From TrEMBL:
Organism the protein comes from: Thermomonospora echinospora
Bias (Acidic residues) ranges: 229-247
Start and end residues of each stretch annotated as Disordered: 229-385
SUPFAM superfamilies per UniProt: TPR-like
Biased composition (Low complexity): 248-261, 335-350
Protein name: Tetratricopeptide repeat-containing protein
Biased composition (Polar residues): 262-273, 376-385
């Protein structure tokens, strides 16, 4: 005996609703658990994988063929796979076992249509059992009846069949999308395209779960093209998330391997030149260049303390092409010599021994002239004139 499809370990059978589990109490406990697990899998897969769901339902039927819920599951799974004859047989058996004459009436009528017997479908729609249906099943049976009349070529009658009060209900109901769609389809087959387009649009608005292709049908009639916004947004997001290359990296990518290597070497040399310390920052240079000149020394500005040598000294920059370290040392040496000369001259002016006293004593102490008075003896002025 075939064992049926494999059962996932996480399915225990407890997922089955309480009413269905009550019907399985007539079975031994282990057998009831196994049947329940197959029924759970059939219910899970009936929409996405009807073939596998049908196999689970058949496995349950082989284990418990005299249980109404099992025959119902087998009939519904067969209906979703298009097995009209088997669906009819299983659902009729379920009606007998459950003693419910009106159950599954819309599905039974649709199976008759599927088998090419629209007259039998109309007989079921007009049967006394149809009057006992609830509102949802009654509307489903009306949809099947309209289809059967279209199968018979009664196009206007198919339209009239669906002109029921629920068609004008301003509030959306669980059946609204299917009812609007069936009415639009009947109008289109009757040659009333403009009205059909209007009702396809209503069906699309009511079909929030995407159970029908009403939007596509409306677009086809209106000459419109439907664009998948979600795919466009995903593509735009992928385009935005890119890594921007620096100009140097972009140039290397465009250049060949040899040119890229040369460019990298140039970058390293440039970095080395930029990071070379300025000679003026060294302690020796600071001690020499930064030594304050004596008042009245030539080339010294009284306000800032800097002289022409400081002003003419090249400013240290990070440009690898201007001011090499050798040139900086030479310029600093020149500044040092000029400073030394100025210091020596100032010392000579300030420390020159005065005239010897007539009495033969120590030389008289000499006072340096004020900074703002010209030293007429040595011809040196604070401005260096």
């Amino acid at each position: 005996m075939p064992q049926g499809p494999a059962l996932p370990e996480d399915v225990t059978g407890e997922e089955l609703d309480a009413e269905a589990r009550v019907e399985l109490r007539t079975l031994p406990r282990d057998l009831a658990t196994k049947v329940a697990r197959h029924l759970v899998m059939a219910g899970r897969l009936v929409d996405d994988d009807p073939q596998t769901a049908f196999r689970h339902a058949q496995a349950a039927r082989r284990l418990a063929s005299r249980v109404g819920i099992v025959r119902e599951a087998a009939g519904l799974a067969a209906y979703h796979t298009g097995e009209w004859s088997e669906a009819l047989a299983e659902l009729r058996a379920a009606r007998r076992l459950r003693n419910t004459e009106e159950a599954y009436l819309p599905i039974l009528a649709d199976c008759e249509r599927g088998l090419g017997r629209p007259e039998r479908a109309l007989d079921l729609a007009k049967s006394p059992a149809a009057r006992d249906l609830d509102q949802a099943d009654r509307i489903e049976l009306k949809i099947v009846e309209s289809g059967a009349r279209r199968d018979l070529g009664q196009l206007d009658a198919a339209v009239v069949t669906l002109q029921i009060p629920e068609l004008r209900d301003k509030r959306l109901q669980p059946w609204s999308a299917r009812l609007f769609y069936a009415y639009a389809d009947a109008l289109l087959e009757a040659g009333r395209e403009e009205e059909a387009g209007e009702w396809f649009a209503r069906a699309a608005a009511a079909d929030r779960d995407g159970e029908t292709d009403a939007a596509e049908r409306y677009a086809e009639l209106a000459g419109l093209e439907i664009i998948d916004v979600e795919d466009d947004e995903d593509q735009a997001l992928e385009t935005d998330v890119t890594v921007e290359e620096s100009p140097a990296e972009a140039g290397r990518a465009a250049a060949g391997p040899e040119e890229a290597g040369t460019s990298a070497q140039t970058d390293v040399e440039s970095t080395t030149a930029v990071e070379e310390p300025d000679v003026s920052d060294r302690p020796e240079a600071q001690d020499t260049v930064g030594e304050p000149s004596a008042p009245g020394s030539p080339g010294t500005d009284e306000a800032t303390g800097t002289g022409p040598a400081d002003a003419d000294a090249p400013e240290a920059t990070g440009d690898s092409g201007a001011g090499t370290p050798e040139a900086s040392v030479s310029e600093v040496q020149g500044v040092t010599d000029a400073s030394d000369a100025a210091t020596a001259e100032a010392t000579e002016v300030a420390g020159e021994p005065g005239p010897v006293d007539a009495s033969g004593g120590e030389p008289a102490e000499r006072t340096a002239p004020p900074a703002d008075e010209p030293n007429t003896e040595n011809g040196v002025s604070p401005s260096g004139g």
